């Protein structure tokens, strides 16, 4: 197997390779760890050298600018959302039910009715969780 030379890898990074050569290089890198490593190290060098260029810095700043407001927005949403805490409660209750009562039912079912009852068991779990949630919600409202 012939390895890809550095010039070709560099050309690949620069998007200067012909399409058929790109395919060739990519196929080779999937199969050849040595060339993949060379490619990654070249990529690292390439980005270190060029990271001072205005275009790259602008892109990074642009990305950061776009991401930060989204994160802030999500945090506020979570904090003010009561629905979220109900979801967490439901998840916790489901685990609790699974660990206690329902777990017994699963064991009994495997003996009596086998795996065909799996769907209805899930439904039962959902029903129980919803029922408990309604109880808790009702209690809070009073
Ligand atoms: Zn190779």
In short:
The chain has helices at residues 6-13, 19-31, 33-50, 54-80, 82-99, 101-112, 118-141.
- Tell me the radius of gyration: 28 Å
Q: What fraction, in percent, of the residue positions are helical?
A: over 70%
Catalogue the ligands: zinc ion
Mean pLDDT over all positions: 70
Number of domains: 2
- What general outline do the C-alpha atoms trace? elongated
Total beta-strand segments: 0
C-alpha end-to-end distance:
76 Å
Content of β-strand: under 5%
Structural class: mainly alpha
> What pattern of helices and strands is seen along the backbone?
HHHHHHH
Number of helical regions: 7
Low-confidence stretches: none
The major β-sheet equals:
none
Keywords: Membrane, Transmembrane, Transmembrane helix
Transmembrane segments: 87-107
What features would you describe in this structure?
The protein has 142 residues and is mainly α. It folds into 2 domains: 6-53, no CATH class; 81-141, no CATH class. 85% of the residues lie in helices and 0% in strands. It contains 7 helices and no strands. It has helices at residues 6-13, 19-31, 33-50, 54-80, 82-99, 101-112, 118-141. Helix 1 packs across helix 3 (33-50). The longest helix is centred in the middle third of the chain and has 27 residues, at 54-80. The model has no long low-confidence stretch (mean pLDDT 70). Bound molecules: zinc ion (ZN). Zinc ion binds at residues 3-4, 28, 32, 34-35.
